[in-house]
Amino acid sequence: MKWIEFKGKKLAYESEGKGTPVVLLHGFCEDSSMWDEFRADLLEEAFRVIRIDLPGFGQSEVVAGVSIEDMAMGVHEVLHALDAGPVVLIGHSMGGYVGLAFARLYPGMLSGLGLFHSHPYADDEEKKANRQRSIDFIGRQGHILFVKQLIPTLFAPGYPRSNAFLLEKLIYRASKLDSTGIVEAQKAMMARADEAETLRSLQVPVLFIIGKEDNAIPADKNMSQVHLPQLASIHILEKAGHMGMFEARKATQRFVRKFVGFCKEKQSV
């Protein structure tokens, strides 16, 4: 992977293909490698696929005190270095939070925004307390046990048992992360702004991919957000949890491919 310097640290990225630029942002305890198989479909469609390791994940270094806005600024720096834009930005979970902050800070850089198992709402007090408990747990037990417990819960019931190799791979990758980066990301998510107004004011199409069996996002938050944008494409995965890029890869590839094509057509009008 290539990298730029951001806040004195390495921020890693990869850019492949030519055509409409599509940015893929990973979620919490993940890195850009989660898109390895998913991106192939986009490259076949002659899109330019840009994947970024957010600070503290993958090959990107930890940035002390990083915020979700900082992460969005890092994404902007990568796109500036690549002279890419406007882009269709697809963010999974925490990557969606970064995408929303990016949309607020750099609306002119977007031709479309995809929330892949994500939402615009700030943490409520219960969620903040849960994140703090996770931080405390990592401090006592380390992050390896934490990710071993976390990752299986992101999938629909039954999926981990029949896809043990994938789960082992994701847990292995997450175990190689710096625990400091995981803690900094938790703190950043705890402190992030509510972006509901950002969705309301967006002038570009918004893609929602929602897992009906997603235990990471309450159903009321999933469904209330879809009414916020002026123009939305909504897809509900009946048998998926929080990881539709694995649980329903072909379907979600199709959703993203069609959405990018629609954004391209709308931009050219």
Automatic annotation (TrEMBL):
Keywords: Hydrolase. GO terms for molecular function: hydrolase activity. Residues 22-250 form the AB hydrolase-1 domain. Pfam families: Abhydrolase_6. It comes from the Bacteria. The keyword Transmembrane does not apply. The keyword Hydrolase applies. PANTHER family: MONOACYLGLYCEROL LIPASE (PTHR43798). This is Alpha/beta hydrolase.
